[in-house]
């Protein structure tokens, strides 16, 4: 079963209580600022903390980049930051504490490795158990497909209230739980942004509910949004 697209697999790997904790600072122009909150004066020509190799993979015309800065290669803790392009510069819009794969990150993600894939991926489809909160991305509401089984721990009951599919090994333009895996089942799939339960995942990236609502209402297909994700060292490589 895929990392987060199939509910039995994903919640079996998620544990802990729902909390909103703050992790390490994210890279900023001029060095650490002691905070990951927006700074109107920080307007880099590209998203900070990202090397040329990965930055070249951001599609032309992209004006929204969700960057996930992992604390370390083997850490489940990360910080998610939304950057938007204004003119020729990128500005930090908002940031939230996040979790990634419980075993960290991998540049060669495999099904069942409990790591999140490093890379640049488009964001094109969303959905969830709850009604559409005003998403700009195509949204699929399905109480059956996104419901947690009754026997799962209470901490996971709201994980899939809202989800945004990360276009890793999936068909764009399909609902988030579509099982098609273009690169093969062994490469995993079902990698989503979803609600946080206070601990690492099987490969997804999780954030507080308020962050999911904001992202759903903000990420605009016309701005070609992508997620750029990995541990900080991998992002800079």
From TrEMBL:
Q: Which UniProt keywords apply?
A: Lipoprotein
Every copy of the L,D-TPase catalytic domain together lies at 76-227
Q: Which GO MF term does the entry hold, naming one?
A: transferase activity
Segments for region (Disordered)? 18-48
In which domain of life is the source organism classified?
Answer: Bacteria
This protein's name: Lipoprotein
The scientific name of the source species is Streptomyces naganishii JCM 4654
């Amino acid at each position: 079963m895929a990392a987060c697209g199939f509910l039995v697999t994903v919640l079996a790997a998620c544990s802990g209580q729902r909390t909103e904790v703050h992790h390490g600072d994210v890279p900023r122009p001029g060095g650490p600022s002691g905070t990951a909150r927006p700074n109107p004066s920080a307007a880099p020509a590209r998203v900070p903390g990202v090397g040329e190799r990965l930055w070249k993979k951001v599609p032309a015309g992209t004006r929204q980049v969700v960057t996930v800065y992992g604390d370390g290669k083997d850490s489940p803790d990360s910080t998610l930051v939304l950057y938007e392009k204004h003119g020729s510069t990128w500005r930090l819009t908002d940031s939230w504490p996040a979790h990634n794969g419980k075993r960290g990150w991998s540049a060669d993600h495999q099904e069942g490795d409990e790591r999140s894939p490093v890379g640049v991926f488009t964001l094109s489809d969303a959905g969830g158990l709850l009604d559409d909160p005003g998403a700009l991305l195509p949204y699929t509401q399905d109480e059956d497909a996104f419901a947690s089984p009754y026997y799962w721990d209470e901490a996971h009951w709201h994980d899939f209230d809202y989800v945004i599919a990360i276009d890793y090994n999936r068909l764009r333009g399909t609902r988030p739980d579509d099982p098609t895996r273009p690169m093969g089942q062994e490469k995993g799939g079902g990698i989503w942004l979803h609600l946080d339960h206070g601990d690492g995942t099987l490969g997804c990236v999780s954030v507080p509910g308020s962050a999911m609502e904001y992202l759903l209402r903000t990420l605009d297909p016309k701005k070609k949004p992508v997620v750029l994700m990995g541990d900080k060292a991998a992002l800079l490589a």
